[in-house]
Predict the structure.
Amino acid sequence: MKPAKISSATHDIQEHPLLVRIAHWGQALAIIVMVGSGWRIYNSVPIIDNFRFPQWATLGGDPPISKIAHMDPGVANALNWHFTGMWLLLASYLLFMIHGLGSGHFRRDLIPLNPRGLFRDFIAAVTFKLSHRLGEYNHVQRAAYWGVLFAVLMMFMTGLAIWKPVQLSWLTWACGGYPTARVLHFIFMSGICLFIIVHVTLVALVPKTLVAMVLGRAADPIHATEIRHAGE
Amino acid sequence: MPVSEPPRPRFDVDRRKLLRSGLSLGALTFLTGCDISDNDTVQSMFAAVSQWNNFVQGELFGGTRLAPEYPESMAVKDFRYNAWYHSDQAPLLDAAEYKLELAGLIDNKKPWRVADLYALPQKSQVTRHVCVEGWSMIGKWTGTPLSVFLQRVGADLTAKYVGFVCADGYYESIDMATALHPQTIMAYQLSDQTLPAKFGFPFKIRIPTKLGFKNPKFVTAIYVTNRNPGGFWVDRGYNWFSGI
């Protein structure tokens, strides 16, 4: 169980401190709750004509029960999930950001990020030539992580704009007014969902990243030729 | 940057770890797959968080901060009807027989007739009505500030809540700070027309700092109290403060 004997000279190592793992899974759980309940709320007044999310994919309870208990198809439950989940999301997001900025994790691993590197790694990725090394973030990954962190921030901004269009009317105004803020909230949600699909697919391809995010550490032996390269 | 074939991973130790992580992922999906929303513990958690959210919203509320007002040209003439029953079923109150009852921490509890209400000082607002479901609409409402009425009848303005009883079985309540807000009015008119029955004749409480369902229609009684009276939707799981 304890991989302490594995040396970093011969292994790629991915390590996540407990704080990061708590913040990661806190956000994961919160986002599932926020998206699921958000879809149920969305369904009561769809933004896209006649497009509703399938009920099984939404969070808010069994509609026949809700009809009796809440006189609605589960909107009260969904709103409760949404306005509970937001606190978990806020707490875990802040924890993640403060740790990432304070510990130097973002500075070490998520920059530099430039168009050239992004283009190079993107081409390598779509032609299946991009190798994944544990503990190392390529430019596509860096862009994706910055992107999703920005999208969550924008979910807070647009979410506050539609929750408090009077008390925070300046924010609602900055988001283009109430109806536009609602559409933006939907668009950034879609962006986060896209990230989740890619993220989970890549984790399935490199399962050790999941081991690291659960247990805190995972290692891959480095191929002999790579060790030579590194030594040169 | 060397690009080489990665070695085949060894699974002897990792299999157990993977199983464990798989289980925690499974627990996550279980939460959504098997919906626990109507579980007793979950409902208690919702109630507790909703109390906290009431507190946060109360703190955020500015007693003199005004809801944005729009040019009259933006006011919708054909306003959306919304209730749990069809507009045909809306109660038709007779102005000659109508009486607004007063109760609770109010000095002068003499009932009010429509003509007396409509004779009170009035002002207009063009504000956005925001529904909890997500739609919104700008309308023009005209009526007497609730604060003027509460002072006129000698209500205890240090009390915590103002409650409303409606002709259709609806009921609502708001915090005193919102009741005294300058844009909280007893609206007699929508789009310069006397309120039609379905919109709450003889008046509705128009509160542009709260969600639509906190704007009760065809009010038949107003009372002032220190015990939170809840509300029709609030007692069905919706957040009580519901400020915007």
Observations:
- The mean pLDDT of chain A is 92.
